[in-house]
């Protein structure tokens, strides 16, 4: 193969990949249309837990998609939004843009975002982040399930996605079981938790 056809082929493949990221997402569309093929998800219901009922802080550790160590100590004193997800989960794909938008809106505040990928290897998570413009890290939990175990008293293991809001002490302050039906709910839960005294 000469240099010109090879360059043309590489350009066509790169263009196709770029267009794939811009096209509509069939799994997310399937979810929006009400199909629950291939996943079990919650109903989007949310719960806010009174301060007196929150119990102990959840301690956890893992490695993100780049291999960097991530622990609960890294987030001490911050409100943390923890989203359990995986790349081929249709409701996870549907809610990804809203999660990233809220992450950007809360930049520079006391709220930080963290994903927990429950099924994929790092390469899939990185590709997902690039496709959806996700800028916050995700702990890769497929090999040992340590994150799911740490939060097992707070989230049902069969409901993905699930989003938790942790208070500054590392306790679960709120939970959304299933995809975000309204991003304003999560925004309110985060703002309420930020407003609490530490």
From TrEMBL:
Keywords: Cytochrome c-type biogenesis, Disulfide bond, Redox-active center, Signal, Signal-anchor, Transmembrane. CDD domains: TlpA_like_family. One of its GO terms (biological process) is cytochrome complex assembly. It is found in: Cell envelope. Residues 1-23 form the signal peptide. It comes from the Bacteria. One of its GO terms (cellular component) is cell envelope. Coiled coil: none annotated. Pfam families: Redoxin. Its main location: other. The keyword Disulfide bond applies. SUPFAM superfamilies: Thioredoxin-like. Residues 49-198 form the Thioredoxin domain. GO terms for molecular function: oxidoreductase activity. PROSITE patterns: PROKAR_LIPOPROTEIN, THIOREDOXIN_2. This is TlpA family protein disulfide reductase. It comes from Cryobacterium shii.
